[in-house]
Amino acid sequence: MKALSRIDEIVEEFKSSGDFSRAEFDELVMLVDIAKDTLPKRFAQIVGQTDQKFPAGSTGVKRDERFEIAERLETVLRVANEFPSQTSETAGNDEDELTPTFILDPSDKTRVLDLCAQMRKIVLATDVFDQPHKRRLLNRIAGIEHQVEQPKGLLDVIRAGVSDVGETLGKFGTDIEPLTKRMQEVAQIARSNSKEYEQIPAPEEVKQLPKPEEDT
Asked: In terms of Cα–Cα distance, which of 49, 88, 56, 53 is closest to 72?
């Protein structure tokens, strides 16, 4: 489908350049409207929200906002390709039974998406993490948001988010309790809504580690 191919190209262009104009984004809006039935729901939501409140302007803050949007769109497409919907007709029943999933009711879904928005703000606002770790955490958050929008979300994506927060904490040795608490709540909500959860161990709580001692 030409629309999907062009959408992939546009997102890659946005990500590579780190910026895009309102006119360039309008092309994406039109293509998403054409291909909305075959795109991840989360992708269409991000495009729709940005269309309603486009961060126009030449300031560094506005450019950073546009770059973040490009990263989120790229991440949603990547995750959708890596984890195809488990409701696909080609998905075998045996595989579905072995894959831990979760299904959220509207209130839990709203809460998780709100927590993801809070975590994104925390990651963007902190000056403790280096850029690779910021990008990795933002990608994890976008991946969680994508799973929440699926008929059945993959619990392993949530567990990977918990693991990444723990790895970040271990590397930087700093107190990131506002981030860890929110990620842990997301994991708790997903686990409590997973019928397969009893078959797998719960992810370890992210511990507050002391700052590593410097070599002398």
From this structure: 49
| CB-CB contact of 109 with 45 (8 Å) | no
Cα–Cα distances (Å) from 156 to 78, 144, 152, 183, 201, in that order, read 16, 10, 12, 14, 12
- The model's pTM is 0.54
Separation CA 215–CA 13 (nearest Å) = 43
Quick one: which of 96, 92, 89, 78 has its CA closest to 40? 78
List the single range of 165-179, 181-195, 199-213 with lowest mean pLDDT: 199-213
Q: Are 100 and 159 in contact (CB under 8 A)?
A: no
pLDDT in tens, 66-118: 999 999 999 888 888 777 554 334 344 444 455 788 999 999 999 999 999 99
Contact 25, 51 (CB under 8 A): yes
Q: Which amino acid is it at 44? A: A
Q: In which residue are the tokens 């939501």 written?
A: 45
Choose among 75, 177, 188, 173: nearest CA to 128: 173
Cα–Cα distance for residue pair 103/154, rounded to 1 Å: 9
